[in-house]
Amino acid sequence: MLNAKIKNIIFDLGNTLVFFDFAYFYEGVSRLEKNLKPESLRKFISEKKLGDKLCMGKILPKQAFRIIKKKFDLKIGYNDFIYLYADIFWENSPMKNFLEKIIKDRNYKIVLLSNTDIIHYKFINKNFPYVNQIKNKVLSFKVGMMKPSKKIFLYTLRKYKFAKNETLVIDDMRENIAAAASLGIRTLHYTTHKQFVRKFSALTNK
After folding, report:
1. Residues 173 and 152 sit within 8 Å (Cβ to Cβ)
2. What SS3 class is residue 69?
3. Beta carbons of 123 and 157 less than 8 angstroms apart
4. Hey, which bits of 67-163 come out as E strands?
5. Neighbours of 187 (CB within 10 A)
6. If the chain, 206 residues long, is cut into consecutive pieces of 10 residues, what is the mean pLDDT of each piece?
7. Which of 56, 98, 140, 155 is 20 to 30 Å from 176 by CA-CA measure?
8. What confidence score (pLDDT) does residue 117 get?
9. How far is residue 23 from each of residues 86, 87, 141, 192, measured CA to CA in Å?
10. Cβ-proximal residues to 174 (8 Å cutoff; 6+ apart), any chain
11. CA distance 206 to 203
């Protein structure tokens, strides 16, 4: 059935349930390390794929810190570094209200599927409790897979016994949406909340 009723929702985390901007981290470190430009830090982390390695659980936060500390001769300590790395998020209030409503209504099985690391996950759990209302989670650093790999979508479907055509993926990244759609999963690209609500209503007839 192409138009089967949607019974399951797989939510993305960053820039969907909460907003984030890594510029806060780069600029925060640069303020404390006067000789380090934000762009230099961003470029090094990107080239060394440290963000991906953290999200895949391939390196620990202290290992990433030591690599960056050695490269730039950082003077700040590990705790300050981690605080700056973690504190890049802010609430998506309309999505918070939407999530709490659908959880209360109990019309859908809900899963959180996120490319994230242990630092960001702990920070969000502590500071955005509405996210933690989603009890079923597939986290990249725990499963060793990341979106847009099709493997992590298939893993999620199998783990929770979701049928593809009854499942909706909500994500802000086009490549993630494309990967899910290629598997036959229903998708909704999150851009603005107003547009999201309109499309969700059309998909669910609500």
Report:
1. no
2. helix
3. no
4. 89-91, 109-114, 136-139
5. 20
6. 84 98 97 95 97 97 97 96 98 97 93 98 97 97 98 98 97 98 97 96 85
7. 98
8. 98
9. 12, 11, 22, 21
10. 189
11. 8
